[in-house]
């Protein structure tokens, strides 16, 4: 896979990969940017959420008609020193629908441990949490 990132001035960049979709990035004012795009660290968390979500929907494909909503919130904790990479990421899966929690937990586990290329590429500890139909559901 090849992604090209082009400088657009100051701290702004645009990246485009084989999909043909461009993604704009910028730094916040604290780092000399204009905040006119997502930060690279935001995109990293978004990529993790998207990767896990795609894998989970593929694993649960036969049950998607019973799911009415999936929202994945990624909360990253960064190191104090440089580089300020993520040391820990909490993934909160908010799922609504008529599906047992054990099926979702199994899909989360399979996505994290076997299929999600983004989680496999990170050195941060990832901690999933499931909220099914508004209820915090412990991992079996």
UniProtKB/TrEMBL annotation:
Which domain of life does this protein belong to?
Bacteria
Gene3D superfamilies, sorted: 3.30.300.20
Q: Which Pfam families match?
A: OsmC
Protein name, per record: Redox protein
Species per Swiss-Prot/TrEMBL record? Paenibacillus pabuli
